[in-house]
Amino acid sequence: MQVLYEGKSIIVKLPERISAETIAEVDAGLKGLEIPEDTQEIVLDAEKLQYISSIGLRSILSLVKGNPDKVKVTNASNEVYEIFDITGFINMIKVERALEFIDTEKLEILGAGMYGSVYRINREQILKVFNGENSRDRLAKVSADTSTALIHGVPTIIPFGAVRTDKGLGLIFELLDSDTFANRIHKHPDKISKYAHDMAELIRDLAKADFDEGNPSEYKDMLRAELSDSQLVLSEEQIAFLEKYLDAVPEASGGVHGDFHAKNIMILDDELLLIDMDDFGRGHPIWDIASAYRGYQFCANMSKDLSLRLFDLPEELPYEDFFSKIFQINIEEANEMWNLFIKDLLNDVEEDKREGYLKLSKCYSEYMTIRFIVDQCKAANYPPERLEVKKQIVAELIENMKEMDVADIPGILAV
Predict the structure, then answer these.
(1) pLDDT average, residue stretch 327-354
(2) 341 CB neighbour count, 10 Å cutoff
(3) From CA 336, how far away is CA 400, in angstroms rounded?
(4) Residue 123 to residue 196: CA distance in whole angstroms
(5) What is the pTM of this model?
(6) Are strands 9-13 and 17-18 parallel, antiparallel or unpaired?
(7) How far apart (Å, rounded) are the C-alpha atoms in residues 48 and 11?
(8) Which residues pair with 114 in a beta bridge?
């Protein structure tokens, strides 16, 4: 029986059988666990467990009684889960069934991002696989947030199953042979005015959603937590500067997608549905407007020099091709989409405030690009010289942000 200590978790790998023949070793192992005071969970991993007798259940019960609310069983097969169920143990201890395994090597990849990759399983299903050691936490967050969003009227789809893959944990979504909104725009550029209006309406629907405080979490709180862990790229002075712009955004009860552009929207029978809810939170719509600006203005119109430094592209790669692959529309379509989208969105805003809103869209798109760079540097483990290139881009973006006086922001956004 193997015991692993990972942070504040203790993971016990249970053997294939826990019966009269093996109970002495298992019982001694469980009773002999060294459990630090700050331990948050004791995980009994039943991935290899095929059978457990009543004497084995009593040994686990002793561990539960000595460590209330900390012990759980994971990766239980259907047969093992039934034993826990029939004996009533699932009322005393959390037991998680083993997840189905899916081999992503056999699937079509639809896209990849900072937090994970999306694959098509079949005509009606897609799979979102989460990257990194925090994949279980991110999976739980997305599951909870999508359910909360749907209940509050946000057009999205909820996952109907968690799975294991060769790349990590994932969620399965049912999309019923839908298409990405970006792909629809590219196929029908003659309808771009209608599509821009539909996207503006989706922002309005998000803003109208009235979420309870803390459910989902504040989008600004997530950004603030990220700033506290960004010293690899940002100086203390730069962090303090960005916090001022973060604090200047008024509180709001609506929904924030966090990466709002047409590739993260599916269209099904003319209904728009948000996907990739990794960053979903509660807050002001300026964050999603800035996301759209970042894609359809900042990224669409950046210089070749900046594109090479920001995305680590080979010089011979045409940037237009790279942009189209990422956003599924070309640069010309992106520019037209932004102009029509923001015109529709600001139609009811007083004319003297529209210019301020446009400046803010640019300003906060630069903030979110800095956030992208911080995540990029954490994931890529750049050598010192490459890290300096990223820090220089951050310095340039912060200089651009200074064009917007932070004292003017609350007044502009109080519309």
Answers:
(1) 93
(2) 24
(3) 24
(4) 27
(5) 0.81
(6) unpaired
(7) 14
(8) none
* Exposed / middle / buried, residue 254 (Cβ in 10 Å: 0-12, 13-18, 19+): buried
What is the token pair recorded at 274?
């948000």
d(CA 310, CA 393): 7
Environment class of 283 (CB within 10 Å of its CB; exposed 0-12, middle 13-18, buried 19+): buried
Please count the helices (runs of H) and the strands (runs of E) in the chain. Answer: 15, 18
* pLDDT greater at residue 174 or residue 244: 244
195, 245 contact by CB (below 8 A): no
Counting every residue written for the chain, the total comes to 415
How does strand 71-76 pair with strand 94-97? parallel
Tokens of 197: 């209006």
Distances (CA, A) of 353 to 244, 327, 401, 409, 415: 21, 29, 18, 11, 9
Report the alpha-carbon distance of residue 181 to residue 257 in Å, rounded. Answer: 15
pLDDT in tens, 250-274: 999 999 999 999 999 989 888 999 9
CB 104 within 8 A of CB 81: no
Quote the tokens at residue 70. Answer: 């900390």
**Angle, helices 236-247/351-380, rounded to nearest 10 degrees:** 140
Residue owning tokens 């991935």:
47
Radius of gyration of the chain (CA): 25
Specify the amino acid at residue 7.
G
> What average pLDDT score do residues 21-40 get?
91
Report whether 5 contacts 13 (CB < 8 A). no
Given the DSSP bridges, would you call strands 125-130 and 116-120 parallel, antiparallel or unpaired? antiparallel
In which band, very low, low, confident or very high, does the pLDDT at 403 lie, cut at 50, 70 and 90? very high
Burial letters for 88-97: b for 16+ Cβ neighbours within 10 Å, e otherwise?
A: ebeebbebee
Nearest to 255 by CA among 222, 292, 208: 208
